[in-house]
TrEMBL record:
It comes from the Bacteria. Residues 16-178 form the MacB-like periplasmic core domain. Belongs to the ABC-4 integral membrane protein family. HrtB subfamily. This is Putative hemin transport system permease protein HrtB. The keyword Oxidoreductase does not apply.
Amino acid sequence: MFLALKEMRYSKLRFGLIIGMMVLIAYVVFMLSGLARGLAEEFKKGVEDWQAEEIVLSDEANKTLTASQLTRGNIDDVQSSTKAPIGLYSGAIKGTQQDITVFGSTKQAFLLPKLTQGENFKNKNDIIISQNLADTGYQVGDKINIGQYEEDLTITGIFPESYYTVSPVVYTDLETWTSLKFGDQPFASDEEKPINAIATEEKVTQVENEEDLDLLTTPELIENIPGYSAQNLTLDAMIYFLFVTATAVIGIFMYVITLQKNAIFGVMKAQGIQNWFIAKSIIAQSFVIGILGTGVAMILAYLTSLVLPTAMPFAIIWSQWLLYSFVLVSVAIIGGLFSIRSVAKVDPITAIGG
């Protein structure tokens, strides 16, 4: 390590360039990771907030909440200690054209979020909204209109930030939700009124009409949100590709530096210094490059996250950033290993011109 640090201090510009490259690559990794996790959170947070054990969809829905078509009558087909119907409607607020997701359920449903302001919906056309929607200019007592629904909806409460497919979440009762989505469409009875899913707080003990219903866990439902898996795979693939790029960049730089030092290595070998001692110095230099590059990049990425616009989804998962840091330092060391073979091939007599 002493030899490695002494050489790095002597060749500040050369190793500064390598560390600079490492900083740039690691910075992109952390920023992509933050954006990927931020987007993922805004896709699924609304579903995770339910804290449901299982979700029941219609069998032909292909495990997708939006495509599921059940009726309130199906609630009795599901045997569980605590269950709640879920209606899903995606629309926009008139005037501002703010996209939102409206979930309809019962007033005492276990999946309703805890309020930070106001009170839960009690009457028809009462709604509660997420904090991220309130931050766009709404407060308790305001009246809004959604989609083609002509009646005013009154905001009675606000709950913590929540998203579903990157749009703020709103909750209301089933009657209001049915009117929002289906307007004046008549139904033969309340049992025939549609819903999208049934969430259960505990495991389902029995399902009647099992061939028509599909039981999913919360992670399974999230994985089948349209676009969720494809988006995550794309961004994760970009991050993995950057790991390969970091390995190649560090490997090429260290290899070129090693070739430039053949004469020095030849002298060292002629003095009886073993190959493993020189190899240890190269690995130590790669380790220092990885640590410094990753550390500076992590600080820069964190500072960048503080000034990003609130509309940009960005989430820091420290455990994941630490894992990526470990991988980046590892690939830097792997890159340095490519040069060790060339060190072993150095002939002392040839290298010093004998």
